[in-house]
Design a protein that fits this description.
- With 118 residues, the chain is mainly β.
- It contains no helices and eleven strands.
- A hairpin with a 6-residue loop joins strand 5 and strand 6.
Amino acid sequence: QVQLVESGGGLVQAGGSLRLSCAASGRTFSGYVMGWFRQASGKEREFVAAISWSGGGRRYADSAKGRFSISKDNAKNTVVLQMSSLKPEDTAVYYCAAGYFFDRYDYWGQGTQVTVSS
């Protein structure tokens, strides 16, 4: 079992930046793909970014490309989503997820709210 805890959400003005962190604990972190998803009010959850265990593979949603960056520190069992040039449409609850594949995630955090004001 893997426990994931997100932090770093908050209120920011459009054009600003936020850094989200996800701390993993429980069974070994090794081998997991780590991802970030988001869900805006009234909308379905959508993929934002993901990174392979080695860090050599990264994927981004089109909406995140050029503005968001995902990284990880295996020694600290953390994954970070650095978000910049934030837009009001980035407002959502952001979830950290872990799995063995880029298209399947078995563990989810509770989420952290990101609100971008115009």
